[in-house]
Amino acid sequence: MKYMLLIYSDPANEPVYGTPEFGKMMEGYFKLNEKMQAEGAMLSGEGLKEAETSTTLRVRGGKVETMDGPFAETKEHLGGYYLIDVPDLDAALAYAVQIPSAEYGTVEIRPVMDYNPAP
Amino acid sequence: MTISASSAVAASRALTRLVRDDRGRLLSALVARLKDFQLAEDALQDAMVSAVVHWGRNGLPSSPSGWLLQVAFRKAIDRIRRQATAGRSGQDLELFASLAGEEALDIPDERLRLIFTCCHPAIEPKSQVALTLRTLGGLSTQQIAAAFLDKDAAMGQRLSRAKAKIAAAGIPFSVPDQDQWAERLEAVLTVIYLIFNAGYSAGPQSGVDLAEEALFLCRLLNSLTPEDAEVEGCLALLMLSHARRHARKGPSGAAVPLALQDRTLWVRAEIAEGVLLLERALRRRQIGPFQIKAAIAACHSDGETSDWPQIARLYDELLAFEPTAVVRLNRGVAVAEAGDLAGGLAAVLALETELSAYQPFHAACAELLKRAGRHHDAVRSYERAIAMAASEEDRLFLSSSLELLLQQQAV
């Protein structure tokens, strides 16, 4: 099954560049990347630029509304994701728990919709 | 063709008994092979409907469970064929067909996997409880709804949401790995304990005794995971608590606290059995929260009076596993009961901000303040505890205690 691991965090709680915590976080991400690659679970994964760079758009009554900033006014913002292919939820959770941001942010594990094409 | 009423009654009685004893086992065997919770449940339901008709006409088959399982497989195949778009491969169908064709099916016991699936942390706690009672306890949706004072429709929706999540989120039908075992087992034991406590406070309702259900589930778990100290600890805890069931309410219907219970009403044989089980668990030297709670229950039950100094020490140990305000409250009460009233009371009162919304906190304060001679404060705590009481029994007990205190003051 495919799962999206959505990584949310509050920038105020993130380790600061140059501190030992920052080094530990980077190392953690690096190790996890390697592991998911080596175990054939990783489909893709990206980090996102800070939420202030975000633009939100919707179309209402044929009119395009474009706004500065992220969709939801929350402290924790989507900061990155992994798309993985693993046998079940427990396997997905086992990777999610190794995401360093889980220690100060939140990881949402969301199954990817499967249209199940006929064999 | 007419089916006589008597054979219809006999067949449906036999089926009810069978489902009570074997539903979990049948369902787990079906889920293991079909890999689909809802399909397994629907197919078993179909098979049961067939059973009433066939058994009523032809009498009971030689292996009723085997019969049900075979028919359930056939019904599952029918359902898959009807849903042409279900995306099942032809191979799957062939496999199921061969399973359905087997003569005497040996029913594998997959209930341990079923328990862990129902109590998976990705499912909401209340739904874990409902799903466990439905699939392993064999309770009907209506019975579960009644036990938790829910509407049938709401409980039905809760159950189908949980099953849909199992399928959609890919919650595995498996026993967790060694590195996850302790944590996941504790989740299962917590569900069983929740069921027990719901039954303990409510008593048997509309034909369902949740305390008995919890004991059934815990015994089942103990037979499926032999030599697990925490499972034994949990079972011991349930047995030791259940042994006091006849003494927990007075003639007026008021709750009777442990210290005031008529110990002759306790079921001594069950206490002895619980203590024996706990001793076996402790010898495994894998201490855990359920064993400690069982040890506390044993300290209350084993002698003529509760061994409070030992209970206070056990709460200290429990704090290492559960560093919660509720455990600190119980520890404070134990310290006071063990002789250090001032120390215990101070420890309890220090929890005010954390536990102001927790009714037992106010009840404990009331009792300890009364003993310390702080009657004015005690009255206030009693009033709060009475206002927040969840059950009529508790309310009755606290009200009579408050009345007694006010009478003493008046003298």
Automatic annotation (TrEMBL), chain A:
Superkingdom of source: Bacteria
Entries under Gene3D superfamilies matching the protein: Dimeric alpha+beta barrel
Entry-linked InterPro entries: Dimeric_a/b-barrel, YCII
Pfam families in the record: YCII
Residue ranges occupied by any YCII-related domain in the UniProt entry: 1-115
SUPFAM superfamilies: Dimeric alpha+beta barrel
Entry similarity comment: Belongs to the YciI family.
PANTHER family for this protein: BLL7171 PROTEIN, BLL7171 PROTEIN-RELATED
Name assigned to this protein: YciI family protein
Lineage: Bacteria, Pseudomonadati, Pseudomonadota, Alphaproteobacteria, Hyphomicrobiales
Automatic annotation (TrEMBL), chain B:
Annotated SUPFAM superfamilies: Sigma2 domain of RNA polymerase sigma factors (SSF88946), Sigma3 and sigma4 domains of RNA polymerase sigma factors (SSF88659)
Domain RNA polymerase sigma-70 region residue range list: 18-84
Any one Pfam family match given in the protein's UniProt record, by short name: Sigma70_r2
Gene3D superfamilies named among the record's database cross-references: 1.10.1740.10, Tetratricopeptide repeat domain
Boundaries of every DUF6596 domain copy: 184-281
Protein name: RNA polymerase
